[in-house]
Structures are given as structure tokens and as C-alpha cells.
Design brief:
The protein is mainly alpha-helical. About 75% of the residues lie in helices and about 0% in strands. The chain has one domain.
Length: about 120
């Protein structure tokens, strides 16, 4: 790593990896959504409450054969939201930090006459 461009490439690769991870988790969560036939057989409020964290009373309303589908959809949605919050907070910060380091390094090299 002799020049700042390598840091910029690393930062861009991290940003691209972030987008790729979010898209893959989004597709994974999308594949577990409730089928329309099952979704329409329950009140809208029950389906909505089944997706929220810290709610459990909806389980008593769901038929036992549909419960695994509801739990899978709920789990994957919560993983997606958690990934969006965590990755959406830290990845742009890391990208900004690395970009700033590269810019400061570039300024230092220009000031010292090495570039």
C-alpha cells in the first residue's frame, strides 16, 4: 500500500460488499414471505402483529400447520431489518473513514513533494 488509491479501492470494495450482502439478505427474506392464500385467511392485524418483535399473542390465533411459515417469515424479516440497521450504520461510516484517510494521506504526500 504505497499510495492512497489502494485504500480507496478497499473502501469501494467494502461498499460493494455491503450492497451485495443487503441484496442477498433481502432476497433470502423475500423467499420466506407468507403465501397469499395463507395471508388472506387471517385478519390483517394478526399478520401485522406476527411480523413485529416482542409480540406473541398472535401465535394462539394461527393454525398449527401455518405456524412454521409465520415464524420463518417473522425471523427472516427481523434478520433483514437488523442487517439494514447494523450494516446501514457502520458500513457508510467505515467507507467515509477510509475515504478520509486516503484524502489526508494524499494531501500529506502532495505537501511533502512525494507525488
Amino acid at each position: 500500500m504505497e499510495d492512497p488509491q489502494s485504500i480507496i479501492l478497499i473502501a469501494r470494495a467494502i461498499l460493494l460488499g455491503y450492497v451485495l450482502v443487503v441484496v442477498l439478505i433481502g432476497l433470502w427474506a423475500f423467499m420466506a414471505r407468507l403465501p397469499d392464500g395463507i395471508r388472506s385467511s387471517y385478519p390483517e392485524r394478526t399478520v401485522y402483529w406476527s411480523q413485529l418483535p416482542f409480540t406473541e399473542e398472535w401465535r394462539s390465533v394461527i393454525a398449527p400447520e401455518h405456524l412454521p411459515l409465520f415464524v420463518r417469515a417473522r425471523t427472516r424479516r427481523q434478520v433483514l431489518l437488523l442487517a439494514l440497521v447494523v450494516l446501514g450504520t457502520y458500513m457508510p461510516l467505515l467507507y467515509g473513514y477510509l475515504s478520509m484517510v486516503a484524502e489526508v494521506w494524499q494531501c500529506h504526500l502532495n505537501a511533502s513533494g512525494q507525488m
